[in-house]
Specification:
This protein has helices spanning 9-29, 37-44, 48-54, 58-76, 85-102, 104-116, 118-136, 142-162, 168-177, 187-191, 206-221, 228-235, 239-245, 249-271, 278-295, 298-309, 311-326, 337-358, 365-377, and strands spanning 3-4, 7-8. By secondary structure, the protein is an all-alpha fold. The protein has 3 domains: 3-56, Homeodomain-like (Arc Repressor Mutant, subunit A, Orthogonal Bundle); 67-177, Tetracycline Repressor, domain 2 (Orthogonal Bundle), CATH 1.10.357; 187-330, Orthogonal Bundle (Tetracycline Repressor, domain 2).
Length: 383
Amino acid sequence: MEQADGKNINEIRNSKSRLISTATQLFAEKWYGAVSVAEICRHAGLSNGCFYRYYKTKEELFRSILEDITLKIDLALVDVKGDCAEARLRSFAEIVFNFSRDNVALIRVFREGQYRFFEYEERLKDIYITSLGEALGSPTSQAEYEFALGGLRFAAIRAAFYGIPARLDAIQEILANGLFGDMEVDDEKVFSGTPRPLSTIRASGARERLLQEGRKLLGRQGYFETNIHQITDAAGLSVGAFYTHFESKEVFYGELIGRVGSDLRHFISLNMGQGLNRCEREMRGLWLFVIYLSHDPNCYNIVREAEFVLPDAVRSYYDAFVKGYRKHPEGSGGLDETTSIEFLLGVAHYFGLEVVFNESPGNVKSRVKEIGRLLRSGLRARL
């Protein structure tokens, strides 16, 4: 039989497959920084030496898994079918939604990979844009991508991860016809005024200093790269002072996540203005989100990394936004309220992702306007 390095090729393939499947499960259950090569090998029933026969580092293995996930999604989208654009759009949405439902571990791993190595998100974005354009019969714009894939991906992921009852048929209807009917939009209301900043005055004392300095460090460096000594040094305090106020680094991080969400919601509420209809409120919320991120880009990193470190805290972060949406339920066109809210959260999430990594706030006003049009009428003009 054909041999390679003294081993049967089938045995080599089996060993490599065991490493990949074991690592995927461990990365999905924990997070990249908490999984070691030794742990992967132990769970796979293989030696550390076997691992290094195939991969130089844990990162190389992680990247190979991300490559495989991207390829699987690309192959799944080959099955988009339909004899008209609307049918193909519904087929596209069904494939994306069901892939998250049927591959929860892969999606969890990709969510972290998207954060750590953004080039994989860029690659997947290109796949989605191409496939959506083929379904619609002409190229997809950036705003169309953020509207369609933002809402669809986010709702699908939250349904798969947390059992939130987002409905595929309602998402398909939003994609085709929007949420807010033919509401008129006054762009001047949406973009008017200079937003008022949040007050920089906070309670004094050791606890507050720790939170302020920790927010800066964790936002810039990340959770694993920041230790308690760095936080206390920046605050001019002892490690003992940290443990006087916080039981652990995880508890401290959880409080920061809650504060980031509270600050963002307060900033948007403070600057929303009066007399806006439901679509204008959504558009202004996106615009204010961009402005907030321009002043505090680190807040996005804190929440994104927390998805893998403290997932329950991040669920609470988004649940607080859901409560805010439920205060203004009018204008959903009779569609399922939970699905509509999840879709809108997703548009904002992926819109923010693009801004943080790719653009300055000054370049996105036209996209907010186009997203507003899509929220009113969906992709109807393309069908």
